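Service request form, structural biology core

Requester: graduate student, group of Dr. S.
Request type: structure prediction, single chain
Budget code: on file
Notes: please return the result as structure tokens.

Sequence provided:
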Amino acid sequence: MMRPTPPVWRSILYVPGNVPKFIDKAHERGADCVLVDLEDSVQPAQKPEARAMLAETMQKVARGGADVAVRINRPMRLAIADIEAAVRPGLSALFVTKTESVQHLRLLDEVVTELEKERGLPVGGIGFGAMIEHPRALAHIHDIAEHGPRVVSMMLGGEDFALETGSVPGDETLELPKRMVAFAAQAHGVNMIGILGTVADYSDPDAYRTSAERARRFGFSGGTCIHPGLVAALNEAFTPKADEVAYAKKLIEADKKAQAEGRGSFSVDGKMIDIPVIDRARKLLARHAAIERRLKKV
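Core staff response, request fulfilled:
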């Protein structure tokens, strides 16, 4: 099964696919990924226009070095039209709304593969972001994470999930399903995107940052926002802090010394250090290095 390399997306900025004033400024916002939306933010009558604009839209939003993704519609006829418009040079991923099964993703993979071949693109280079938006999909999240073609990230679509469950979207109601999706993604090496709350309220950047930082502690790799003023909060929240990096390096050096002395565990600053702690330090440093590489490319 082909999957692209998991991207470094601390921040994903939604941009309506048919609103030039947002499209024209998106490259200035500092997001790791700009997600051009063809779904909820575009009225049905305007979707053909958004598709017609997409080639130029993608070029515009990429000018600052951001990856470009496109959120497609779920009804298959609309999804196919969206994919036909989106699969072109510069596309990093398609965000698949209302993902419910591996079979659903395989159908879309077949279409994308045909277009990649026809248009001279690397086969398998475009990833899928699997969006879980219905409670019945929870029965299949591990299968999606393990066997879904092209899957590089997963997320819970909080507003749609709350609608389908009759609940009010918020920290309390969305934390459990988001963590369930996160466990599935993390079990199979897939990035988990989101914050432990709702993304609809952008009026308090500090609260948003706090929620994102909490999500990072639960192993989430990045978050989404609909307002450009929250991009900086996401980038900060999902970047390892300088003291965390310094401590991780300290642990790695102490581990090297312990290994030379034939010891499998040791103490640092009065805390017992063993293999899981060292592995966690290595992962943090790898994440830090990946972010640094990304920033150098921008």
